[in-house]
Amino acid sequence: MTPLGRETDVALVDRPRPSTNKGGSEKEDMSTDGQACDHVGNHPNNLLCVRCGQPLRVIRTVGQYQLLRLLGKGGMGTTFLAWRTPHSPDHDHQPPGQRLVVVKQLNTDIALIPKARELFEREAAVLKQVNHVGIPRFLDAFSEQDQAYLVMELVHGQNLEQFVLKHGSVEVNQAIHWMQQTCDVLHHLHTHYPPILHRDIKPANLLRQYRDSRIMVVDFGAVKAMAEVMGTCIKAEGYTAPEQEAGKPTIASDLFSVGATLVFLLTRKTPLSFLISADEMSLAGTTQIPLDLQQVLEKALAQNASERYSSALELKLALGACLEP
Asked: Is the CA virtual torsion 225, 141, 61, 145 positive or negative?
């Protein structure tokens, strides 16, 4: 899921919405004084009218959602900022902020590829069954005209890759706290039955929320239950454990990715920069990383999965012991 940045927040104006008549058809957009709204007085970048609260421009409507703005496009899906229409289930009971949502569409060019559709549907299924403050809330999933859609809550924030590239390396304690929050999410997934592997933990998939600076783990397109047949390789250069590259991910594979992400946060360098051989990484001499934290990272990044931490909770505790007073 692509987050919504601060530069867009000015457009998210929410005002009383028009009612519907007894037949259920939508009336004209009405201003707060009960008159038909002409949408005058809006900033050119506004998405919603400051007077009636309705969308000013709609790309198209799918299901019960009006797509307002393209947020991003990846290899598998395209995400849009969207508005729940008045005919959406429980629309009248939704807090104003929840009428704006994110709609993810499976890209047309790969929609006919069985594996791509499987991954997309798996993302919806996982989001539907998990409930954690650090995971975007699942709202809906549907198909229309052979297109698959996933609807999630809108999260205002910036991913950690963008954050580091803009602000530079992260202070040690802050970086540790963010990775501990990531471990909390992974612990929730890993203790599910059967355990769920994220398989794509990396800075771009960790969202720092603007409201409280806490981390939300996004993009569940690569998730996989450990009970499923192994073989598919989801790979992010520098952040993927060796056994996952071989198509045999484990819980320890996600922990490797947490360690690699922490290295990036502290150094602003890709973990590949620290390879001293094809299968060995060394953080020796890295002044941005305290020695005790280097030892934790070296264990988290061990090439052999059995030499890493046994759980996300164990890694969280080890990171906590490295917090500076």
From this structure: positive
